[in-house]
Amino acid sequence: MKSLFTFILLFVMSQTLSAQNNFKQKQLTFERVKTAYTQKWAGLKEELRQKGFKDKFKAHLEAYKSEGKLEVWLKNSNQAKYTLFKTYDFSAHSGILGPKTKKDDLQTPEGIYFIDRFNPESRFYLSLRINYPNAVDLLRSGQQDPGSDIYIHGNQLTVGCIPLTDDKIKEVYVIALEASNNGQVQIPVHIFPFRMTKENMNKKTAIFPQHKVFWKTLQLAYDNFKKP
């Protein structure tokens, strides 16, 4: 019985790895993905080596709307905590502080998400879709259409997404694809209104008191991720 269980487990693992490898190979059939690897992967691998990251790593993305920053955090398979790898500037902004509540409100969402699609033929060069709207977003939107199709993408235009320029999305796309190929099923994307320090919370909630309760819940996720 034990040997049968072991066989089944190994078979499932092999099928999962095969699917992940096939996904990367399929992505590499697209010209923009091939270009991204040609231009960026060698340099990224050297940066990874210098900062102590091995071939198989997991990724976590943190975005801050007010500061206009996207942080890429990584960890090796034998590590419990993520370490900051690189920070990218937003190339444009849309809306104001506060969550997205409906279609065409120009707001960038705020909340806890994950990447649910790699788009190698995006209108904005390359793009990574997040799973907006999540359950909290749907509850908040009520009977309104909450909108959809929120991406981290190239270009310098946005109506609620997170743009990084075509050059920078190449790096983020490659990192995310490598993490996925390493076996990471979901790559978290946490989008915060600002860096949620006590000082910032006091300042921003004085201006946007209607978001205080929601932001307090986001602050828990922010603090939990940042604690040593």
Which helices and strands appear, and what pairs or packs with what?
Elements: H1 2-27, H2 31-50, E1 57-64, E2 69-76, E3 83-89, E4 111-122, E5 125-130, H3 135-141, E6 151-153, E7 162-163, H4 166-181, E8 188-192, H5 198-207, H6 212-226
Parallel strand pairs: 1-8, 6-7
Antiparallel strand pairs: 1-2, 2-3, 4-5, 4-8, 5-6
Pfam family, one: YkuD
GO molecular function: carboxypeptidase activity; transferase activity
Keywords: Cell shape, Cell wall biogenesis/degradation, Peptidoglycan synthesis, Signal, Transferase
Walk across the major sheet and give the strand order: 3-2-1-8-4-5-6-7
- Biggest sheet descriptor: 8 strands, mixed
Name given to the CATH architecture: Beta Barrel
According to CATH, the fold-level topology is: L,D-transpeptidase catalytic domain-like
Q: Look at the structure and give the mean pLDDT.
A: 92
Overall CATH class: Mainly Beta
